[in-house]
C-alpha cells in the first residue's frame, strides 16, 4: 500500500473526512476544516536511518519521510526519530511527511525554524536536554494529525513555541508525566493558532514546579479547548493524575491572551 493510502486509512475519521471505498479505492471528499498551511515541497527524500544534525541544516523545503525501520507509521513508544539534533544544532525549512516515526529528537539546546509536520508520528519533536539552562526554540512552521502530543519535554530546560500553527491534535506540549528522572520544565507559547479538533495546548506537572506561559493565542472552532492542564507527575511510570486546569501560578495567562474564533 502506498504512503498516501496508509495516511488516508489511518486518519480518515480523525481528520473529519467523508469517504467511500469502491473496488479497493478510497475516494476522499475534502475535509470540512482548513488544514495547516504546509508549503509546497521542493523535493522528497526517504529516510531509512536517523539523520544526525550538527550545526545548521537547511532542508530547502524537502519532504523527509520514514522507510524501513522508520516506516512503521504507528504510535508505539520508543521509535527512532527522523532527525536527531546535537546540542546547539538548528534544523530549518524542512517538511516531515508520513510515516514520520518519532519526528525530531533534540539532545540539548536546539532550534527548529520553519519545520512542518504533515502527519505527526509518535511525537513531532522531543526535548531531551540534561541542563536546566538548555533551550528548545520552535519558530514558525506547523503540525497536524497528531493523535497524541506534538511537542514532548522529557529533559530539563525551557521550550519556546512561537509563530506556529497546529490542527487536529491531542496536546501541543506535554511535560513528561512519568519519566524516571523528573525535574521542573518550562514552556513559553506565543503567537500560536490552534484549530479544532484539539484537546489541550499544554500539560504540565505542577508538583515539580513546571510553568507554562501563553500570549497571543488564537483558538479556532472550539471555545472549550483546554489551554493548560495541571498534572501530578511521578517517577514510577504510572499514569499521571490530572488535578486541574486553567490559569494559575504555574499556568500563566489571562483572558486577554486567548482569542476564540
From TrEMBL:
Keywords: Calcium, Lyase, Secreted, Signal
One of the record's GO molecular function terms: pectate lyase activity
A Pfam family this chain is assigned to: Pectate_lyase
Species per Swiss-Prot/TrEMBL record: Actinopolyspora saharensis
Catalytic activity: Eliminative cleavage of (1->4)-alpha-D-galacturonan to give oligosaccharides with 4-deoxy-alpha-D-galact-4-enuronosyl groups at their non-reducing ends
Location relative to the cell: Secreted
Identification of the protein by name: Pectate lyase
Record family assignment: Belongs to the polysaccharide lyase 3 family.
Amino acid at each position: 500500500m502506498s504512503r498516501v493510502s496508509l495516511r488516508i486509512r489511518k486518519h480518515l475519521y480523525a481528520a473529519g473526512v467523508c469517504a467511500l471505498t469502491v473496488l479497493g479505492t478510497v475516494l476522499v471528499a475534502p475535509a470540512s476544516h482548513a488544514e495547516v498551511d504546509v508549503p509546497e515541497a521542493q523535493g522528497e527524500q526517504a529516510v531509512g536511518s536517523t539523520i544526525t544534525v550538527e550545526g545548521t541544516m537547511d532542508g530547502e523545503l524537502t519532504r523527509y519521510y520514514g522507510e524501513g525501520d522508520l516506516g512503521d507509521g504507528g504510535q508505539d513508544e520508543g521509535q527512532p526519530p527522523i532527525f536527531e539534533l546535537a546540542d546547539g544544532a538548528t534544523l530549518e525549512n524542512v517538511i516531515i511527511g508520513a510515516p514520520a516515526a518519532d519526528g525530531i529528537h533534540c539532545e540539548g539546546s536546539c532550534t527548529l525554524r520553519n519545520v512542518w509536520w504533515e502527519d505527526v508520528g509518535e511525537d513531532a519533536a522531543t526535548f531531551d536536554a540534561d541542563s536546566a539552562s538548555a533551550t528548545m526554540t520552535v519558530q514558525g512552521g506547523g503540525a497536524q494529525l497528531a493523535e497524541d502530543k506534538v511537542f514532548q519535554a522529557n529533559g530539563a530546560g525551557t521550550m519556546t513555541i512561537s509563530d506556529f500553527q497546529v490542527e487536529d491534535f491531542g496536546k501541543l506540549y506535554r511535560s513528561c508525566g512519568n519519566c524516571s528522572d523528573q525535574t521542573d520544565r518550562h514552556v513559553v507559547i506565543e503567537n500560536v493558532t490552534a484549530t479544532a479538533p484539539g484537546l489541550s495546548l499544554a500539560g504540565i506537572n505542577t508538583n515539580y514546579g513546571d510553568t507554562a506561559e501563553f500570549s497571543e493565542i488564537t483558538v479556532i472552532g472550539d471555545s472549550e479547548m483546554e489551554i493548560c492542564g495541571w498534572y501530578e507527575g511521578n517517577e514510577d511510570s504510572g499514569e499521571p493524575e490530572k488535578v486541574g486546569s486553567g490559569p494559575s501560578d504555574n499556568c500563566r495567562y489571562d483572558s486577554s491572551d486567548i482569542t476564540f474564533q
